[in-house]
Specification:
globular, mainly alpha, 75% helix, 13 helices, 312 residues
């Protein structure tokens, strides 16, 4: 087996609670809540006069049938269903930032704290491989696991709602807008890659802190940026560091696009998201701050490798 692949597998097994069990539990909870809300409370199976202007609509199947045959149904219904699947199966995404942050924070700290680094250093594995594995697992592999769980949850929810629509005489095929479903899954990957590359200097900083902090790594990760921001504000009365920090945390996404676009329905929203993703890619590749951030991230990763070489 390839050495680096084995290191990634080891990291996954060591952090299986955060990388595997947390998304699996939250994904199962998403499915459970959809089933309970549908069967237990009847809000989806029987509408019981919810649509007063359309008394002929008595259940979910008839609502889907009416939407499919409406003037905008061909365009709006697939988008609405796709977005609904993301909302109904999206609970697990809440945990992802915490899993990434605390995994990086403990990656190199824990092996020094419990002295297991002595054992791992006796293995024929280079320090740079160990550090990169500890960076790539939470930053790249874990989100793919979360996406896999989210996709599985969406498919299970689609199967369940298809059964509901089938028994109520509705159009089952309308519950499977496969083109949009695959498109949004791919879109997530593209957008996550861009967001991760923008945030990489911050993520690499957390990993670097994990490589040298002897105690309280959380405080070491949070306090220095806070002190830098406070000193700049007091001495220079500027907020350049905070603006730089905010940009890499996600603020880069408000620097492009048209904020005055009219959104008249789910399809307009998806079209906007798809279009702005490619515009964001162009903006990212042409942005000097983005490339400088990657250089800074490389410096922090190099520092983490050097610190691990000197760790005993």
């Amino acid at each position: 087996m390839n050495t680096f692949t084995a290191l990634i597998k080891r990291e996954l097994l060591d952090g299986k609670n955060g990388y595997i069990r947390v998304p699996a539990i939250l994904g199962a909870l998403s499915v459970f809540l959809v089933i309970v809300s549908t069967i237990g409370f009847g809000a989806t199976i029987e509408f019981d006069g919810v649509f007063d202007s359309h008394p002929e609509i008595r259940n979910f199947g008839e609502a889907i049938d009416m939407a499919a045959n409406s003037d905008k149904g061909e365009h709006e219904l697939p988008a609405a269903i796709t977005l609904s699947y993301w909302v109904m199966g999206g609970i697990s995404w809440v945990a992802l930032p915490f899993v990434v942050f605390f995994s990086l924070l403990s990656a190199l700290y824990e092996e020094r704290r419990d002295r297991s680094i002595l054992f791992w250093k006796s293995m024929p594995v280079a320090d740079w491989q160990e550090v990169l594995a500890k960076l790539i697992t939470p930053v790249v592999v874990a989100p793919l696991v979360f996406l896999g769980v989210a996709v599985a949850a969406q498919i299970v929810i689609a199967l369940f709602l298809s059964l509901v629509v089938l028994f109520q005489g509705g159009p089952v095929l309308e519950m499977w807008p496969l083109g949009l479903m695959f498109g949004t899954w791919s879109l997530f990957i593209v957008h996550y890659i861009m967001s991760t590359l923008w945030a990489l200097p911050l993520l690499a900083w957390v990993l670097f802190v994990s490589s040298y902090a002897s105690r309280l790594p959380f405080m070491w990760a949070v306090l220095p940026p806070a002190v830098v921001a406070a000193v700049e504000a007091i001495l220079f009365e500027t907020t350049n560091f905070l603006e730089w920090f905010g940009t890499h945390m996600g603020g880069w996404q408000v620097r492009y696009g048209n904020p005055h676009v009219d959104i008249d329905g789910p399809s307009d929203f998806l079209n906007l998201v798809f279009g702005e993703t490619w515009e964001a890619l162009s903006y990212t590749l042409a942005n000097g701050q983005f490339w400088l951030g990657l250089v800074i991230a490389g410096g922090f990763v190099y520092g983490a490798i050097e610190m691990r070489k000197r760790a005993i």
